Amino acid sequence: MSTVTSTGSRGAERVPVRRLTVLYDAECSLCAFLRDWLARQPQLVPLELVPAGSDEARRRFPGLDHRATLDEITVVGDAGQVYRDTAAWIVTLWALRAYRPLAHRLSTASGARLAKGAVLAAAKWRGAQWSGRRGYEGPWGPGGAGRWDGTVYRRADGWTYDPAQGWSYGPPACDSGTCATR
Hints:
The chain is of the alpha+beta class. The chain has helices spanning 29-40, 55-60, 66-71, 85-94, 100-106, 109-130, and strands at residues 4-6, 20-24, 47-51, 74-77, 81-84, 153-154, 159-162, 166-169.
């Protein structure tokens, strides 16, 4: 599943979450739709919705890679927890009254695969929307040069999309010996 990190050595992983800040891409129509949807939902944990890469986001979270927050959803807890990718989607659902039970199901091993598929589908749609824009440097290539053409699409994290077979995962190879160890 995705990573959850904490900033500094404040023991953020042991502190209850009382507020979450969702960093979203304000120029993405899907992201803006989801921002509006989140704002209308009854919340068990208050959500602050802040445009990723904005002056406000940079002021609040100077230690974040703000370029990366434009490529993938990032959620920051009030004690410094940082959730990215699938974990960010799950913790956001966990904050919503009607979706907390779903978040608990998605946090299991089998649920995480389903959540990852949903995140990848959203990323694919988002990438298709952005790929024609000049200067875009996200997962679909600079300036739209990597626009998906209906053939197999491979991500660096090991996920592959084949239109005939759907999404599958194969761990990335470490032939060069430069892969990070955990």
